[in-house]
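User: quick one, sequence for these tokens?
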């Protein structure tokens, strides 16, 4: 009897979640959540400006944690989450912020774990990228340094099957080549070649990394 009551409660929760997702889609014309994505996204935080687009692909999953995932998509900005990605919020919220006109692209099979991705211009993650807790990726200086040195933005690109481990900061203009690993608490200020182990402040190549495409989460 208790098991039956639990199943009924779960069905009611899913029905409520689906209804909320439909209401969100009506409220935000640029919001596209694939029917096969997790209904737990119903408790995520959504803020979309005029002309913004947020696309969440099939098989995207997250935990049922209120505002464990927070999307801020400014006017005319775009955010896309690829198929089968896991937005993991148990250790902390995942925040994706695309400022007006900016773009964030997360490839399929990604693992975003308690991190912060921010784009004023362009930020792209390839297939199977892991981003650890406390990681912050910025494609912009965020603010002007002084009157003579204005804010600057440059695209950030992280290649397929990279692992950006915990508490790493990646700054504007950086490209991290496919199958590379960035060690914990590193500050990445310059581009890193593919198949490279890098760490430090600033991060520098320290070794080689092989094929990561079959490494399980």
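Assistant:
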């Amino acid at each position: 009897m208790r098991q039956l009551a639990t199943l009924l409660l779960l069905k009611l929760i899913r029905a409520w979640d689906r209804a909320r997702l439909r209401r969100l889609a009506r409220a935000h014309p640029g919001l596209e959540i694939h029917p096969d994505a997790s209904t737990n996204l119903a408790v995520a935080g959504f803020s979309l400006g005029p002309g913004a687009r947020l696309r969440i692909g099939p098989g995207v999953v997250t935990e049922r944690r209120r505002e464990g995932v927070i999307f801020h998509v400014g006017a005319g900005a775009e955010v896309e989450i690829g198929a089968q990605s896991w937005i993991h919020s148990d250790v902390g919220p995942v925040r994706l912020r695309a400022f007006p006109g900016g773009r964030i692209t997360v490839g399929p099979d990604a693992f975003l774990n308690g991190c912060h991705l921010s784009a004023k211009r362009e930020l792209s993650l390839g297939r199977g990228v892991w981003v650890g807790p406390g990681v912050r990726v910025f494609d912009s200086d965020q603010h002007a340094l002084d009157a003579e040195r204005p804010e600057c933005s440059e695209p950030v690109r992280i290649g397929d099957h990279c692992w950006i481990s915990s508490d790493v900061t990646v700054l504007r203009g950086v490209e991290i080549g496919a199958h590379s690993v960035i060690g914990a608490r590193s500050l990445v200020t310059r581009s890193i070649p593919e198949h490279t182990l890098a760490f430090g402040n600033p991060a520098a190549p320290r070794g080689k990394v092989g094929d990561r495409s079959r490494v399980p989460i």
